[in-house]
Amino acid sequence: MTGRTTFNAGEICWTDLQTKDVQAAKAFYAAVFGWRFEDLPTPDGRSYSKAYLDDDLITVIAPQNPQQESSGTAAQWNIYFAVADAGAVVDETPHAGGTVASGPEEVEDTGVMVFLAPPGGGTTGVWQPGTHTGTARYNESGALAWAELLTPEPQAAVAFFQQLFGHEVTEYPQDDGGTYTTLMVDGAEVAGIAPLPLEDEEDDEAADAGADADAGAGAGADTEDQALKAGWQVYFGVGSIAEAVAAAVAAGAVVLVEPERDGDEDAGRVATLSDPQGGIFSLLEV
User: Fold this and answer.
1) What is the set of domains in the chain, with CATH numbers?
2) End-to-end Cα separation, the chain, in angstroms
3) What confidence score (pLDDT) does residue 261 get?
């Protein structure tokens, strides 16, 4: 078990889900990951829920805000980078080419939260810890295992995070001529940044598939399109990708990207799914 009690600045320390139906989300993710839950009240009279493996806090499932609910926004997994000074990050964000969406906001005594966006988009959380430092487990079954940003401006996004957090980077050339970049803290890879396929490339692929594709194939293309949108993809570890996908589908998930091996032969298999409220997440075999 990879337990965590502290996180260095620039590491991804936390993830949480905002959804229109907390109770339904609890039932779904309990079926997939075996999480147990503790419900707590929100100031507006609703409730959010802490998710645990044994006694270790893994994540939180929270209700959407009124604006998200009224606009019909799909559920969304957020990721958070650990920082020592959220206010300093807010001040530096425009100089790095990004925008501040909200914050800094004090969340009682647990910490200070900020949401910002790098060039090219992709809402990104920042967390200055108080009593809450982050996830208690990492890179194991049922816990946060990786996160990567899909962006139309990967070079600008990499420069943005380097300026804010001082990340070192490793670049991996891809077969399509692009580059997959990992952000690093103290020599360890903490997140990935990948180029979003260009629209003309997607159109070429669709043309190659043929105009006589049946309805089932068309639905498959639509689900992959859902997975290929700008923003952060959160990965949770699983012991068996096949068993986890089967459990998720039985609980109402839609498979957006079928299980496949991620890059080199030593990497675990991955799959991307949508939960019943539209929250997109990925599985990584660990």
Assistant:
1) 12-196+230-285 (3.10.180.10)
2) 11
3) 64
